[in-house]
Amino acid sequence: MAIEPATAGDRLDALRVLDAAMLETDADDLSARIDAGDALVARFERTGSVVGALVVTRPEPGRRHVDAVAVRRARRGRGIGSALVARAVRDARADPDADAITATFDADLRGFYAELGFAVEPVEGGRLRGRRAVGSPDSNGG
Q1: Residue 22 has pLDDT above 90, yes or no
Q2: What is the CA 63 to chain-centroid distance, rounded?
Q3: Residue 27 confidence (pLDDT)
Q4: Cα distance between residue 79 and residue 70, in whole Å
Q5: What percent of the chain has pLDDT over 90?
Q6: What is the per-residue pLDDT across 105-126, written as a single tens digit (0 to 9) for each?
Q7: CA neighbor of 31 nearest in space, from 51, 9, 52
Q8: Are strands 50-60 and 39-43 parallel, antiparallel or unpaired?
Q9: Long-range contacts of range 70-78, CB-CB < 8 Å, 24 or more positions apart?
Q10: Which of 47, 55, 1, 60 is nearest to 31 (CA)?
Q11: Is the pTM of this model over 0.85?
């Protein structure tokens, strides 16, 4: 499995993965995120097919936000989603302007984000928010 920046040629496959997970993703916004280098894909190396996708936004200076992450149903449970988020964390860490990466998610994903080093707290609507500092290689929470 290769985790790499999405290209314009990956747009439709990434949209399909995100749509299959019932995540609302605007096609034009995804194109903009790809152009900005803020979209990743998980590619099955043997066939080149896209089996996972992650989209990051930059809602304010210094913060990146995992807007959507999804893996094809047949490939779930194999660490692909974790690898996508871990790569987004590494990319944020490599950006001298980024100090944190966040995500907002349902309660059933608490363990997923906690295992990836996100400090988790409740937000309105019964959802959770995870935050991970990226200022240094051993940062977390914050």
Answers
A1: no
A2: 13
A3: 84
A4: 12
A5: 79
A6: 999 999 999 999 999 999 988 8
A7: 9
A8: antiparallel
A9: 70/17, 70/18, 70/20, 70/21, 70/23, 71/17, 71/21, 71/42, 72/17, 72/20, 73/20, 75/42, 75/44, 75/51, 78/1
A10: 55
A11: yes
Position 52: which residue type?
G
Q: Is the Cβ–Cβ distance between 73 and 81 less than 8 Å?
A: no
Residue 142 pLDDT level (bands cut at 50, 70, 90): very low
**Helices 11-20/27-35 angle, 10° precision:** 130
Cα 90 to Cα 15: distance, rounded to the nearest angstrom: 23
The first and second tokens of residue 77, run together, are: 């449970």
HSE, side-chain direction, 13 A CA sphere, residue 104: 11
Q: Any idea what DSSP says for residue 34?
A: H
Tokens 């496959």: give the residue: 13
DSSP state letter for 124: G
Name residue 41's amino acid. V
Helices (H), 2-121: 11-20, 27-35, 80-94, 110-115
